[in-house]
Amino acid sequence: MKAIEIRTFGSPDGMAVADIRIPSPAAGQVLVTTEAIGVGGVDAVIRRGTLGSYGFREGHIPGSEVAGVVTAVGAGVDRSWVGRRVWAFTGVGGGYVEHAVAAVEQILALPEHLSPAAAVTLGSSGVVAHFGLAHARFAAGESVLVRGAGGSIGISAVQLAARAGAAAVAVTTSSPERGDRLRALGATQVLDRAGTGGADYDVIIDIVAGAAVPSFLGKLAPNGRMVVAGIVAGYPPADFGMTMMTAFQKSLSFATFSADTIDHTAQRAIRAEQFAAAARGELDAVVHELLPLEQAALAHRKMDAGEVFGRIVLTP
Length: 316
Known about the structure:
The protein is an alpha/beta fold.
């Protein structure tokens, strides 16, 4: 089968098509013939080599979520899964393939009217947005700033905050056109990437991180909470906490959030709710573009250039 491997970390050009053996599902696993593969920000972070110390090596196959049809099951798995359309989480890799394996606990049947592309756009992003807002202790009537709102996590966070009764939903984005699209999804204030003019937010959900973290901490209201749910721009400066210390009397809070800390059962319940809402047209899964699996490098170049609004989806 075709797969995409990272031969050299850094540029998207270090990714290449490989011909590998179709895996057999082990005990407790299923084999999914993929119809859609989500291209996430974490894939780009891994490909750049930012997380090299976490054990990623040349030959790594990126991708963490796919959607398709179960075509085989391993020992101990109910055979009724065979032939069903599912979303599947493959872990920290293994998704950019024509046939993917996943633990049966990490799959979810798709509603009838939800496309595979919509599933991989919303599957992980919606869960991160939901629990990221919960991690920030967001409550109805509070103001929220979503930094990096044009990606799939940010788009989900904007919609969820608006639906949950936020007093205001501010966003940072790169163009007026993107701002208009975000307003249609629930944003009430559009800022440039630097957040110029924005201030006094109860909650900031940051998917970008990087050198600007201190300046965004300065935009929190008293008792404000900032949660970093992504590091698309890399790590913040080592002394970023000094911003909070110099504003000691504002009682600010800073936290990171990873869905790895959330029980699979809890994730599954929220994902099922969001899939059902999307199937009813109540939650938008914004697909930027469909590209063939062989063009994964092009997808990453588009992400690196900041061209993507929503999520690029690969199709085998």
